[in-house]
Design a protein that fits this description.
Blueprint (H helix, E strand, L loop, with lengths): L1 E5 L3 H12 L3 E6 L5 H9 L4 E3 L4 H4 L4 E4 L8 H8 L3 E3 L1 H6 L5 E6 L4 H14 L4 E5 L5 H7 L4 E5 L2 H5 L8 E4 L14 H9 L10 E5 L3 H6 L8 E6 L8 E4 L2 E4 L6 E4 L8 H16 L4 H8 L10 E6 L2 E5 L6 H10 L4 E5 L12 H7 E7 L4 H7 L5 E5 L2 H11 L5 E4 L12 H18 L1
Helix pairs in contact: 1-7, 6-11, 6-12, 16-17
Length: about 450
Amino acid sequence: MKLAILGAGESGVGAALLAKAKGLEVFVSDKGEIKEQYKQKLSAAAIPFEEGVHSHDRILSADQLIKSPGIPDKSPIIQEAIEKGIQIISEIEFAGRYTDAKFICITGTNGKTTTTLLTYHLLKSAGLNVGLAGNIGESLAEKVIENKYDYYVVELSSFQLDNMYQFKAHIAVLLNITPDHLDRYEYSMEKYAASKLRVAQNMTGADFFLFNADDENIANAFDSSNFGGTAIPFSLNGAEGAKVYLEGEQVHVVEKFYEGTIAVAKSPLIGKHNQYNTMAAVAAAKLVGVADADIEKALATFQNAEHRLQTVGEAKGVTYINDSKATNVDAVWYALEGIKQPIVWIAGGVDKGNDYSSLVELARDKVKVLICLGKDNKKLQENFSRVVPIVAETTSMEYAVRLSRSLSEAGDVVLLSPACASFDLFNNYEHRGQRFKEAVDKIVLKK
């Protein structure tokens, strides 16, 4: 079989290496520049590739095409492939063909990285033979070459789910559905939700679908009457039929032979959204047989990924939290809701059509200072200047942090939670978060 791969990033190169290992004829094409580390991998495996161009004739002679999640279906080369009847699949779909390991797959508009890392941590700490892959930044296909794991915890974006057809998860988790990336779905929430629900496709009664019963968009999109797996709703709000729920600082799991009550007080995660993330991860761990005591012990040692409500410093009683990954309004809502201390909030960047109305009351109650960090801060000022006592603006991260220091006092939290993309002033959200951390480090050293 001839296989063409579009995109030579982590997923594309991983798929190419797996294809080569399985004896398939494979060609890799990237219209942009390929990073040196990936060129070296392709060259070492004697896989032909091109960069800066798509050779249509060569690509369209393939039997199947694997595309990077970042390439939209409306791309001309994809449209040509569809017209020729070439099947287009994702790296995850391809990798799933070559392993009998069980997949624990996690998606949602917000919280999927934290939940993926926490689930992996709970399983690995308990001694299970488990790998980590997917949208987290590690190629599932490349890991499947050695095929040494019994379980894979896989973070899935909607873009990855779109081109998955036969793939089946043993445990699927859907955390929430809120508007995001709607330009890829004809600005239809129904189509975006349908994409997210693909995480539970092909399930049988021996498979489990953990979903947030408090999420209205999930409730509207999920048809339980046509579902072949075992549905396990989780809830903070006492939803009817919930099989996973939180009481005080204990998660209760009630599902056939997997009952348990797990204390979560020692978890370092804060905020209501992380209560949902924790319920989902704890339930997934219970479903694969991890003991309550092992879950409780591992919760206390979990360290979240960078840029996600990450405490990066403390000086003169002020805590500095990096939430640069919060690039939409919902993510910021969870951050503001979860922090109980007075907040100096740093926000701004490239607005994605944000509706800030859901944040106004939280800002009124909790935010003492708003520092707008961006080239165009008009919308933030219009929404919050009447509810936040002090509103300032800057295009310098270092100045924003220095200003936050001068306007905060012991017991406050300085929170970088932008609600916006980063591309006006930074390369990406990681670059923005790193600049925040560097600026905080200077303050911490001077305390």
